[in-house]
């Protein structure tokens, strides 16, 4: 029987929650090196003058989001895998949950900004530099942070007001709002409604505008004179499309599971949770490194310089 926390029948009660890892994978830890890829992308973009362009500024933002997500979740994940520490204090859990969710919303917004970047680059290349200036990019970055922080600010307080009793075991190695919410033995209609409003008004709106951006991009590309120009324009979008898919598919899957998957085996929650947690930060820098000649060349120069200096 799982160890349970001290509880009362009214108000805020949990002292600790129990996190869940993947059984049998306690010694598999090599994947924890994935933040290094994002650090490498950031260093290369900062040091390479030819990468000081709007596209790569947005890529830097994406790498920061992935790095932040890793820093939020690795402590509890490593605690389970390396030290078998499964307990997390309730306030610490709420803090981790808040940052995971704001970083996810921010990543969604960055992907929308990158879609806008691709649309401007393809539909109006002559005005690209004058539209996406550094001050404009800074304003976009501040708007992304502000929206995520403000929209998710009430979530921890809505969870703290609930009464918790009975089960205290979470489905993942990190704290996730729908997962915590289901542990309450009080009415959670307000939490469900607010969570739905937030996800639809942030991630949902971002996804709709990303799709709309690509409808306009395809419309522009179709009007190009030659097939070669058409393919070249579409090729610049491949990395972004991959980033969108590997972010939105696990996120939507995890949200649906927690809202509609009452009869789903616990292992499915765990696996989808790890896909949501690991896949985007691992694949994003690899995808952009493979598809971008400028990043590839900068990486090779960096590695060559290190080899020469050794």
From TrEMBL:
According to the entry, every stretch annotated as the G-protein coupled receptors family 1 profile domain falls at 37-288
Topology class, membrane: Multi-pass membrane protein
GO terms for cellular component: plasma membrane
Q: Write down the superkingdom of origin.
A: Eukaryota
Q: Which InterPro entries match?
A: GPCR_Rhodpsn, GPCR_Rhodpsn_7TM, Olfact_rcpt, OR51/52/56-like
Q: Where are the transmembrane segments?
A: 57-83, 95-116, 137-159, 192-217, 237-257, 269-290
Provide the GO biological process annotations. Answer: cellular response to lipid
Q: Which GO terms describe its molecular function?
A: G protein-coupled receptor activity; olfactory receptor activity
Alphabetically sorted, this entry's keywords are:
Cell membrane, G-protein coupled receptor, Membrane, Olfaction, Receptor, Sensory transduction, Transducer, Transmembrane, Transmembrane helix
Q: Where in the cell is it found?
A: Cell membrane; Membrane
Family matches, as Pfam families: 7tm_4
Query: Family assignment?
Result: Belongs to the G-protein coupled receptor 1 family.
Q: What is this protein called?
A: Olfactory receptor
| Annotated source species | Terrapene triunguis (Three-toed box turtle)
Tell me the lineage of the source organism.
Eukaryota, Metazoa, Chordata, Craniata, Vertebrata
């Amino acid at each position: 029987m799982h160890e349970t926390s001290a509880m009362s029948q009214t108000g805020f009660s949990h002292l600790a929650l129990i996190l869940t890892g993947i059984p049998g994978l306690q010694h598999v830890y090599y994947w924890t090196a994935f933040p290094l890829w994002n650090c490498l992308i950031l260093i290369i973009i900062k040091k390479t003058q030819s990468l000081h362009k709007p596209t790569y500024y947005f890529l830097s933002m994406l790498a920061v989001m992935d790095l932040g997500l890793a820093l939020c979740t690795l402590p509890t994940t490593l605690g389970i895998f390396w030290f078998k520490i499964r307990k997390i204090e309730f306030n610490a859990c709420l803090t981790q949950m808040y940052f995971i969710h704001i970083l996810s919303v921010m990543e969604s917004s960055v992907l929308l900004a990158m879609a806008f970047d691709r649309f401007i680059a393809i539909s109006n290349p002559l005005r690209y530099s004058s539209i996406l200036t550094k001050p404009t990019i800074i304003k976009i970055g501040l708007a992304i942070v502000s929206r995520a922080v403000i929209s998710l600010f009430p979530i921890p307080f809505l969870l703290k007001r609930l009464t918790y009793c009975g089960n205290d075991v979470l489905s993942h190695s990190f704290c996730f709002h729908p997962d915590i919410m289901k542990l309450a033995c009080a009415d959670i209609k307000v939490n469900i409604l607010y969570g739905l409003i937030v996800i639809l008004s942030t991630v949902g709106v971002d996804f709709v505008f990303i799709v709309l951006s690509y409808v306009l991009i395809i419309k522009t590309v179709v009007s190009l004179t030659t097939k070669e120009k058409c393919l070249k324009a579409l090729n610049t979008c491949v990395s972004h499309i991959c980033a969108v898919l590997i972010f939105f598919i696990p996120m939507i899957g995890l949200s649906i599971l927690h809202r509609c998957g009452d009869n789903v085996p616990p292992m499915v929650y765990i696996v989808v949770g790890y896909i949501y947690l690991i896949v985007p930060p691992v694949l994003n820098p690899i995808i952009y490194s493979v598809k971008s000649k400028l990043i590839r060349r900068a990486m090779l120069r960096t590695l060559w310089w290190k080899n020469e200096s050794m």
